[in-house]
Design brief:
- It comes from Cylindrospermum stagnale PCC 7417.
- Residues 147-523 form the Glycosyl hydrolase family 13 catalytic domain.
- This is 1,4-alpha-glucan branching enzyme.
- Belongs to the glycosyl hydrolase 13 family.
- The structure is a single chain.
- The protein is α/β, with parallel strands linked by helices and 632 residues long.
- Among the domains are: 2-123, Immunoglobulins (Immunoglobulin-like); 534-631, Immunoglobulin-like (Sandwich), CATH 2.60.40.1180.
- Helices cover 21% and strands 26% of the residues.
- The strands form seven sheets. The protein has an eight-stranded parallel beta barrel. Strands 22, 23, 24, 25, 27, 28 and 30 form a seven-stranded antiparallel sheet that branches.
- A hairpin with a 2-residue loop joins β1 (6-10) and β2 (13-21).
- The longest helix has 19 residues, at 507-525.
- It is elongated and about 90 Å long.
Length: 632
């Protein structure tokens, strides 16, 4: 429903639509909140000169008509305009005679003016329609995701953009790097929030205020032909998604649905459905709900808020044919006791909607930051998400890599599929946007870490990442050992971290990127690595020198051995023995095998005849590993 509000265009006909729920007409709409107490609403903007008025003139601006709606009230205004990119706001007069400039909560465009956070719309240009869905959408467990922070990804590419791709907007720059994605081997891209954020300070995107609009700076064409380029601002996103889908790369968006940004010092600025109420505290969209603490919380106890966010998800899934959503900080809108009207209901409704539209394998992944990270698994099963972000593996990589010593607790972290319901799986990573890079972490997590002295320590954890169960996620720049420090807390935490692309071709970058390419290809060639099967399960952490079968951890040598298996492409059982040397020294170990015969080391290109279920005294290079494979 909400996706149909905002500005609707049909040729040169333009209709502004603004909806308000009313519990007197539909008691289900909200249990806490009130009516907006509006006397009248005018539409003001730079379109007014086209209807023989002065731009941004409230004295002549057209007034919206209030109409009946089954769930509340709909304000609308219709006009005819020539082709163009237009900015507007609502000028609201309340019953107490207070007046306020407000944005449109359902606008599909954010405005160009950095000082006013206008809403916007387009007449003409290339409409967003018929976005091509991916031809063969993979199950979430088969995805190898590349996480992109759009600003950081493109900042050092503007002067080195692909000349074959027209345009200089950030989305165009990313489109010019699709060959790089294909060469790396990933099959999905996850964009950190692209929805419009409030303010012009640097942001990671986690302070949304316009959910149906993409952040203006990502579509800014920076083109000499400004009019034509502005008409195609949203079409740029379609072109990017169409191109990614044509290259068999899935698209996942990061959705921030726990909270919205509101500027309490500037009435009218921020999330419009807050300021469109005479008393903003009466807004049924806003209110305390579970564990928030960030900005203003959306009140999922009220059905109108539930419907609004569901329609936001539906809009991006339908209009742009995206292949999944990562739900940020779901702990903030999850109710563990009783019926959960928050993330659980949202996921359930999305599953039902997607089933009804015959769409399968849509990834609905949650970031669920429970104090005990393993508690997130039980919550994920209850919520019905396809998976959740899985911090334990990353934290173990940070700790073991920096200390140089492996603890037996790493075996629980490596059993990534444990306790997930069938069909659900973790999203696994050894680096993500929330922390400093893995190279920095293994070097001591501080400013000034030497990339040259620490990059090789990340290699065994990269091997683990691509050989463990779960949806794999690689943060932009991780694949070539980019390095920077990021505080774990404090005001300097949200900062710009431009990807240092020149490092992708230096000695370190070349070595690491070749390793990632090889590991990604191995995972794609042998789909049983995506299975949930892992041994040793329920590892006894008192076994500090492997278990009785020779698997697990030897803390004296900092060596890890585990077994994976599953059904291969040919329908036969595939088996793997993965050996990781996390030590800075070569080590000699006996490697156990589940059966005799010839085993191939996929990583190093060697073959070994196994007798007596053992390869004795195998020399393992420091900070390296082996991936033994046999098909039986």
């Amino acid at each position: 429903m909400y996706e149909k509000f905002g500005v609707v265009t049909a040729g040169n006909n333009v209709t502004f639509k603004l909806f308000f729920p009313d519990s007197h007409k539909d008691p289900a709409q909200y249990i806490k909140g009130g009516i907006p107490c509006i006397r009248n609403i005018q539409v003001v903007g730079d379109f007014q000169e086209k209807i023989n008025q002065q731009n941004w003139d409230i004295n002549t601006a057209p007034e919206m008509t209030k109409q009946d709606h089954p769930k509340g009230w709909l304000y609308s205004y219709e006009t005819t305009l020539c082709d163009g990119f237009y900015q507007y706001k609502f000028f609201v007069t309340f019953e107490n005679n207070e007046q306020r400039w407000c944005g449109d909560p359902c606008t599909k465009y954010s405005g160009l003016d950095p000082n006013n956070e206008n809403s916007a719309f387009v007449v003409g240009g290339n409409p967003v329609q018929n976005v091509q869905p991916i031809a063969n959408r993979l199950t979430p467990k088969d995805l190898i995701i590349y996480e992109i922070m759009i600003d950081d990804f493109v900042e050092n590419l503007f002067d080195h953009r692909n000349p074959q791709v027209e345009g200089n907007a950030p989305l165009d720059i990313i489109r010019g790097k699709i060959d790089y994605f294909v060469g790396l081997g990933i099959n999905a891209v996850e964009f950190m929030p692209w929805t419009a954020t409030y303010g012009r300070n640097f942001s990671w995107g986690y302070n949304p205020f316009l959910y149906f609009a993409i952040e203006d700076r990502y579509t800014n064409p920076q083109s000499p032909d400004e009019l034509e380029a502005n008409l195609d601002r949203l079409f740029r996103l379609q072109m990017l998604i169409d191109e990614l889908h044509s290259r068999n790369i899935h698209v996942i968006m990061d959705g921030v649905f726990n909270h919205v940004d509101v500027d309490q010092n500037n009435p009218g600025r921020g999330f419009p459905y807050y300021w469109l109420y005479q008393n903003p505290q009466d807004s049924p969209f806003i209110g305390d709900f579970e564990r928030g603490g960030f900005f203003e919380e959306l009140n999922f106890d009220n059905k109108c808020a539930q419907e609004f966010i569901f329609d936001v998800c539906k809009y991006w899934l339908d209009t742009y044919q995206i292949d999944g959503i990562r739900f940020d900080y779901t702990l903030g809108f999850f109710r563990r006791d009783g019926v959960d009207p928050g993330i659980s209901r949202l996921i359930s409704n999305l599953h039902g909607y997607l089933y009804g539209t015959n769409r399968t394998n849509i990834a609905l992944m949650i970031e669920h930051l429970t104090d005990n990270r393993y508690q997130a698994i039980d919550d994920t099963n209850r919520i019905g998400a396809t998976g959740c972000w899985y911090d334990p593996l990353m934290f173990q990589a940070f700790d073991s890599g920096s200390s140089g010593n492996v603890n037996t607790s790493i075996m629980r972290a490596m059993h990534t599929s444990r306790d997930f319901y069938p069909g659900n799986n973790p999203v696994i990573y050894i680096e993500n946007h929330d922390h400093g890079t893995l190279v920095n972490k293994v070097g001591g997590s501080r400013v000034g870490v030497s990339r040259e002295e620490n990059w090789f320590k990340t290699q065994p954890y990269a091997i683990a990442l691509l050989t463990l169960p779960g949806t794999v996620l690689i943060h932009n720049g991780q694949e070539f050992g980019d390095e920077y420090y990021l505080p774990e807390s404090g005001p300097d935490r949200v900062q710009s971290r431009p990807v240092n692309w020149e490092r992708s071709t230096d000695f370190i970058g070349s070595r690491l990127i070749n390793l990632y390419r090889k590991l990604i290809q191995i995972r794609k060639n042998y789909p049983s690595l995506c299975s949930p099967f892992f041994y040793p399960d329920n590892y006894d952490e008192t076994n500090t020198k492997f278990n009785y079968q020779g698997y697990g951890v030897n803390i004296d040598k900092d060596v890890i051995i585990y077994h994976r298996w599953g059904i291969g492409k040919d329908g036969q059982v595939e088996k793997f023995i993965i050996v990781l040397n996390c030590s800075s020294f070569d080590q000699v170990v006996d490697v156990p095998f589940p059966h005799n015969g010839r085993w191939k080391d996929l990583l190093n290109g060697e073959e070994f005849p196994v007798n007596k279920y053992l390869l004795e005294r195998q020399n393992l290079n420091s900070n390296w590993g082996r991936i033994y494979y046999a098909n039986v």
